[in-house]
Amino acid sequence: MIKYYSYPADKNVKLSEHFVVGEFVTYSDYHGNYPSRIPIDSKLPEVLEMVYKHFGCTYGEINSGYRTSACDRSVGGSGSGPHTLGIAVDVYFKKNGQPIPSRLVACYLEDLGIKGIGLNCGGNPDGTHIDVRGFGVWNDKFWHGDEAKVDKKGNYALVSNFYKYTGTSKSEVYSSGSAQSSTVMTTDPTVRVVQVWLNKTYGLKLATDGIYGNETRRALVRGLQHVLNAKFGAKLDADGIFGAKTKAAIQPCTKGTRGAYPSILQAFLICKGYNVGGFDGNYGNQTANAVIQFQKDKGLVADGIAGKATFAKLAE
């Protein structure tokens, strides 16, 4: 959802833990002549925060954010691209002074299902273009490209798979121990049962192949968001991205609980390879044991209560 902010009045308003409104208009674009009204899609800071935390960053710099049409044309744009809609940034991430290469960021964004990704933004191997098309704006558009390679017509090289294109391994992207789910490809009849249940319960069209990959993970997050909306009135967008708002909406799921909430918890655990003793929506002893084991495996407090930290790890 696009929200409008006033500049400079709102420049210090926090959009996420590490990003504020003022960072979404940059001196390099405007040279001090900033627009008074700035549109920013609420998904954008969520995705930036996910990248920041996944790679354990200590610094993130937006090199270019919202551009007016005139500003966009002045820097070589069309005057009507994603930057002019408030859904895009060009960004650099660092950890302890060392840049996070764009190829790693692009691969991680690809796993998240982000539809607008520019590798090597501006020809810089540490810069990445990110835009959140597909979340209410430009739903029919998709672009993954390499901005370091431009043809004679000025078009960037298209990329179908960032891992293959850059020669990057999953272990490089997930070496921090975060978001491991996209590396896990299990074929299991219980995963197939979960996929069938997700399709029937939430009207999805997942392949019921017993493979737990990124699409099934996102479907589980969508299911969780539906449950949080129905049970707790969370008013979340069921978009499959486990961001700050989804995490904040999590309420403890405890032993003895029955219904949709423990069902989605069991579905996550099953897809992660844990034995819950039956996919029945009953948070009984075996489900509690599975939660405790999962918490131990992830270095969490092993109390058998599925709260914010546990669901956040399940959703990775």
Description:
By secondary structure, the chain is of the alpha+beta class. It folds into 2 domains: 177 residues, no CATH class; 134 residues, Orthogonal Bundle (Muramoyl-pentapeptide Carboxypeptidase, domain 1), CATH 1.10.101. It is built from 12 helices and 9 strands. The strands form 2 sheets. Strands 3, 4, 5, 6, 7, 8 and 9 form a 7-stranded mixed beta sheet that branches. A two-stranded antiparallel ribbon has the order 1-2. Strand 6 and strand 7 form a beta hairpin. Helix 7 packs across helix 8 and helix 8 runs antiparallel to helix 10. The longest helix is centred in the last third of the chain and has 19 residues. The radius of gyration is 21 Å and the shape is globular. About 4% of the residues have low confidence.
In short:
This protein is α+β, with helices and mostly antiparallel strands and 316 residues long. It folds into 2 domains: 2-178, no CATH class; 181-314, Muramoyl-pentapeptide Carboxypeptidase, domain 1, CATH 1.10.101. The protein has helices at residues 27-30, 43-54, 69-74, 102-112, 162-166, 170-173, 189-202, 214-232, 244-249, 260-271, 285-297, 308-314, and strands at residues 2-6, 37-41, 59-64, 88-95, 98-99, 116-119, 127-131, 143-150, 156-158.
